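Fresh eyes needed here. Have a critical look at this protein's tokenised backbone.
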Amino acid sequence: MALIDDVKSILNDLASHGWSNLFAIHGLDITANDLATELLDKELTIQRTDGFADFHPNAKHGIVPSSPAESLLFHGLASPAVQSSSITRYPTLTELDTIENYIYSLSNKSIEDIISKYGEENLFIALLSSEYRIAARTPHKRHADVVYCRTGLSRVGDSPATYHDHRRSFWLHPDNDGNSISVMPSKFNAFICIKRRIQNSDAVLDTHTDQFNEFCFPVHKLFSGQECISVDKSMPNLNLVYSELHLQEKLKKCHELPAAQGGLEIDRTVYDLTRPPFVRTSLTDNLVNVRQNGSICEIVPEARPIIEFAKQDGQFVVYDADPRRTIGNRSNRFHSSLQIPLVNGSRLAPEYVNMRFEIQNGAPISYADQALTPRDYVVKINNMASKPVHIIDNTCEGAVSIQELPDLNLEILPGYSVVAAIDFFPLVDQYEIDKFINSSANQLGVFFPQGGSAPLSNGRILVNPAILNPETNNRAFAANDNTLTAIMSAADTLNSQLPEAVKLDEVSTSFLSDAAANIFAPGWDLSRAADANSEFLSVSGLGSPFPEDAKLCAALNSFWPAAAPDASRTFAHGMTVKPLTEREVGVHNQHPFKNDLGGSNHGWDGEFGPFFQKLNGQEFVNFSSIFFSDYCDNMLKRKFDVSLLAEIGTAKLIERMIFLRDAYLRLDQFQASNQNDPFEFSMDSLHLVTFDEVEDWSGNYPQRIGNQLIGHGYRFIFAETGAPDVSQEFGRLIAPVKNKYELQYDLNNGFEAKIN
């Protein structure tokens, strides 16, 4: 069947779901008998309203050959900004791919034409991840466009992928089931590309240091069949067959590092460190699946338990953990986690390792389930008389490629595939957070006291040299190839005027690198590793398993801003940066306003948040102890609820951060202006205990301080506390309240405060 027939079939079905009327507004008839002529030749009257405001300003046709961004049909179907209550079905990824293939087929390009224009020595076939984005999320910001990256990030889950067609993207959890976590695939396509330095017509996200770097810019999309490209005036029947090879070596890295550098001892007469679970690949372990739909290669992580107890030959893997000691100038403990230090600034092994499960009666049991006293728990962590059980996760990294295409005879550059940890904020882009933090509009000072906000797309570093090309079994990525995580737009798309501003996309998720965190030390998605020759990206420096790292990053003021929620309020652990509401952090059964908050619930991380508690006439803050908390135990018991944070978008998160930062500044000013003022406090002892979003202050809200507050707003209650002590509930602490400070805002800058 010809591509035009496939397109007709797709459009005929979509027409009855509201799309015929939507495109008719612009003068396009998607059910026309001569559809090819209707799409190519008919000049349209573009109505730049709703989701079409950022459509290419110079475009006037349903399809422009080789240019999805100038094709009204593709924009309407692919842009997540195009939403309508009259539309009852949106296109699938495969349908969008078919229409994109048709757009490229109309260019009638031959390989000889492309070679003549660019030179054969400059051309490659490259595997690229791509997304069609609104103007605000493209490198050039001028119009909606396809953006490309040689890196795709999929994410682990315990349930099959959930695709939301109205989002034009994958979603974090199955509908109505926040305790299940859907795997989130990435996708790759093959393109003929030119590799070169940036020219005036190119767009690369944040190119301030890229004048000497080379990037792969797409020239022509490849797809199976006889309509893709001609060779010597013949039309070869191309057959794209994708392949992948992924790798994880976390446990091996734990044990091959010398003990003097913090490496962990293990009985090598019992365990073979060259086999799973120490070294895991696609050949030995079902880490990912390749799902080929049309010309799309989806990298789909295997839906399996998020974390599992490590086994080899049917036996649980246990290891030797040293008692608490100092390595260099750092402890080998961070709270109740094993800590492996940096070596010359790089992570040669996972930074944190879970050590709170041991074998009893032939099965792993957590310390939390052993009815230990708090003192016995601490002694057990410090002395490590027993052997902990290793826990594995399914994060990994690898290469995606295609089988050789003899008719084209071009070198094939694989794509870099990262199977990353869960993104608890799927609608928040790291890039947008970073842009706000560093913008002139930010007059509130430093937000993140440690870590940083830079996205992975800013990174210019090599990738793991141990990754092999699945087609050649040689090193997948060149030793000088440092632009794999860069995000680009295709060439020759910038000769247009800026359209009117379009709001930030708060609907779709992303598998590209600007939605992920840069490496830092180690990072949420990737870490910086090293060998004798170079530094490089790797998943091996992340916690083993990653929830171990997630707890500590989240407790450290949301160390990696986009991906990591902020659990510092939950653990009363320093200054909160990104406030989460009472229900989002979890409402304890003893919370005084439990009924008003809809009852008790575990928070996003399986914990319960803090609350004020009266005991014997004294007021305390009751909060979870980071030392006793175990995210791995929570994950194994399926206490996590990813639905609680999933709908928070970038704009909402920034808004919360702004108001919280203002609250801190006001408290700080109160202290500085008058040392005798009752607002005097030490920031180290000041904790955000209560945070909630108020729908309408004027709606008979009993906690409202003053009548000037109206409309939507926020409520913060801080407490200055004394030294904590254990509570009657294992795993929780209580700290006496010295002073309380309540600050209330509405979004029109109404403000009230009171002191208790």
Summary: Residues 23 and 29 are 7 Å apart (CA to CA). The two ends are 75 Å apart (CA to CA). The chain has a mean pLDDT of 91.
